[in-house]
Amino acid sequence: MKKVLSGIPTLLLMxxxxxxxxxxxxxxxxxxLFPVLVAVLVIxxxxxxxxxxxxxxxxxxxxxxxxxxxxxxxxxxxxLESPFFKEQCVGYNYEKGEVHYxxxxxxxxxxxxxxxxxxxxxxxxxxxxxxxxxADLNLSLLPAQIKTIHSLKHTENxxxxxxxxxxxxxxIHILGNAIETNHNxxxxxxLPESPLVISTPAIESHTQKGFRAIRHxxxxxxxxxxxxxxxxxxAPVKVQLGPNKGFIIFSIFGMPVLALIFAAIGSKMHGAFxxxxxxxxxxxxxxxxxxxxLLCLLHMTKTEFYRxxxxxxxxxxxxxxxxxxxxxxxxxxxxxxxxxxxxx
Length: 344
Description:
- The protein has 7 helices and 13 strands.
- By secondary structure, the chain is of the alpha+beta class.
- The chain folds into 2 domains: 142 residues, no CATH class; 138 residues, no CATH class.
- The protein has a 5-stranded mixed β-barrel with strand order 1-6-7-12-11. Strands 5-4-10-9 form a 4-stranded antiparallel β-sheet, with no helix packed on it.
- A hairpin with a 5-residue loop joins strand 11 and strand 12.
- The longest helix has 39 residues.
- It is elongated.
- Keywords: Membrane, Transmembrane, Transmembrane helix.
C-alpha cells in the first residue's frame, strides 16, 4: 500500500505534464513559443562552434596561456584502430545504435553503445610544436563515417554504426586551454566542462557561411515572427470568410509542385530568366516549409480563415522580399565561394 501511495505524486506530475503538453501543442500559443524554444536550443547547441569561430588563431610561439585556437597538422607516435571501420587513427568516437523507422518516413536512432579512445599527440605548424593532452576530445564537428546494417528479420531493428576519427597528418583547428608546464612549455588540455574542440578548416568555412546567411536573413525571420503573431492574436477580423480547404491543400501540396515546375524551367534558362524562375522555386519551397505546419495547426484549432489567409500572405511577402534583397549575398556566400575554391 505504501508503494502505491508513494507513486501517486509521480503519476500526478506525469498527468499534469501530459495535460500541459496537450494543451500547448493543440493551442495557438505554441506558435509564439515554439520559435523561441528553437532559437534557445540552436544557441545552446552551437555554442562550441560560435566560440571556435570567434576565437582568433594564436601562433604556438606566442602562447601565454588561457583559451586558444591553434591550426596545425596532427602528429602522434602511436596508432589506434577504430572498432568498426578499422581506420588507423590517433583517436576515435564510435557509436552503435538501433534504427527505428516511422510511417511518416522519419527515423530515430537509439544509441546502445558508445566508445571513445584517444592518445596524446602533437600539433605542428610553422610557428612551433605543442603537445595535446587528449584526455577528453570533442570530435563532433569532424565528418562521420556511417553504415547502416539492415536486418533480414522484421522483428529486429537495423543497426547503425557511426565513427569519427582523427588521423596522423590531418590539418585541424583545435580549441583548448594552454597550460604552462614545469619546463616552461605549453600543453593543450581540457578543463572541467570544457573539452578540447576539434574542427577542420573546411567544416569551419561551411559553418561560417551558415552563420553569415542567418545574419542576413535574421531581420526577415523576425519580421515573419511579428507578422504571424500580429495577425493571429491582435489584428481585427475585417472580413468574415468561410473555411477554404482548397486553399490549405494548395498551400501544402500545390506550392511544392509549383516549385518543381519553376525549378525545371529555371534550369533551362540563362541570365535574368534563370534568376527569376529559380527564385520563384525557392520562394515556393520556403513558404511551404514555414506555412504548412502553421496552417495545419490553425485548421485544427478552428482559427478564422481570414487570419489564416493573412498569415500565409505575410509569410509569402516576407519570404519574397528576403529572397530579392539577399539573393546576391547568398549567391556570393554559397555559390561564388565554392567556385573560387574549385579554381584554386
